[in-house]
Design goal:
Elements lengths: L1 H10 L14 H11 L3 E3 L14 E2 L1 H6 L4 E5 L2 E5 L2 H10 L8 E5 L3 H12 L3 E5 L3 H11 L4 E3 L4 H6 L3 E4 L26 E4 L8 H8 L3 E3 L1 H17 L5 H12 L2
Parallel strand pairs: 2-4, 5-6, 5-8, 6-7, 8-9, 9-10
Antiparallel strand pairs: 1-3, 3-4
Helix pairs in contact: 1-10, 4-5, 4-9, 9-10
The structure holds NADP nicotinamide-adenine-dinucleotide phosphate (NAP).
The site of NADP nicotinamide-adenine-dinucleotide phosphate (NAP) has 28 residues, from helix 4, helix 5 and helix 9.
């Protein structure tokens, strides 16, 4: 993923480097960012919510979502934002419109929140299903009236009339207990359903493989990764990103 940004910096002759950093103590890491004068941060699982108390400000979008995936250092002031929602929307729109479409979202964590708000803004009709039903209910309430929620046992019924299914859980991700698994029985998938997977490693998760076998349209996790990154690049640099360069780098790293 770092190559996606570094290729774009090189293309525009920008003297930046995007480097992966592992955090031991989040508070100290943030002090380090300020003291070292780092320009910006990309934030990923599991820090998207935990980082919030350490920031000076959240933009309107991150405030509403309650999760941050990008931080920009503006003269020593750390401002959090979130590009997951717009990234997911762009990836989905490569395959389908969302207005008035019934969308079933699996998961109610940070990514789900970002995507749900973005889809609601675009007049999709949402159902949130989660293992912890309380969290699904909280998200449904935060989104406003008329949002359905429940547990995964409702999946069969909800999918009967759905246009789009989005997996926002890490189930199926490489090097985890759920590698090779899917939350959705293959029999529930049918031609015409658009299945979006957030997991990008591996690219061909069990859900993606099953969806293809059953004739569904697939939106891969790496397409969202690209589009959320394009938006981050704009925030990092205040410049228009060379999207084809980022896309090429992303294709190279995400092909299994
Ligand atoms: P998060 O805030 O920790 O939320 C995780 C969600 O997944 C929760 O709803 C959780 O349910 C559910 N979950 C976790 N393990 C599960 C299991 N074994 N069975 C059923 N449900 C399970 O994480 P996040 O930040 O939203 O990220 C979620 C996934 O999206 C990660 O894999 C991340 O890499 C991916 N992601 C991809 C992109 C992209 O651009 N492609 C962008 C953002 C995130 P409970 O509430 O019941 O625990």
């Amino acid at each position: 993923m770092y190559d996606m940004y570094n290729s774009a910096f090189a293309e525009l002759d920008l003297d930046y480097q995007y480097v992966p950093l592992i955090v031991d103590d989040l508070g100290k890491a943030i002090e380090g960012v300020k003291n070292l004068g780092m320009k910006a941060l990309g934030v990923t699982i599991p820090y998207k919510i935990d980082i919030i108390p350490y920031l000076d400000e959240l933009d309107e979008n991150a405030q509403r979502i309650g999760a941050v995936n990008v931080v920009v250092n503006k003269n020593g002031k750390l401002i959090g934002g979130n590009t997951d929602g717009i990234g997911a929307l762009r990836a989905l729109k490569e395959k389908t419109e969302v207005k008035n479409k019934k969308v079933v979202i699996l998961g109610a964590g940070g990514a789900s929140r970002a995507i749900a708000f973005s889809l609601k803004d675009n007049q999709a009709v949402l159902t949130i299903l989660n293992r912890d039903i309380k969290k699904a209910e909280e998200l449904a309430k935060a989104l406003g009236e008329d949002i359905s929620f429940g547990g995964y046992e409702q999946l069969k019924r909800e999918l009967e009339e759905a246009h789009i299914l989005i997996n926002t859980t890490p189930v199926g991700m490489i090097n985890t207990d759920t590698e090779g698994q899917s939350l959705v029985d293959m029999e529930l998938l049918r031609p015409g359903l658009v299945v979006m997977e957030l997991v990008s490693k591996p690219r061909e998760t069990k859900l993606v493989q099953d969806a293809k076998r059953r004739g569904c349209e697939v939106v891969y996790g790496y397409r969202m990764l690209l589009h959320q990154g394009v938006e981050k690049f704009k925030m990092y640099t205040d410049q228009e990103p060379p999207i084809e360069v980022m896309e090429r780098a992303m294709e190279e790293i995400s092909g299994d």
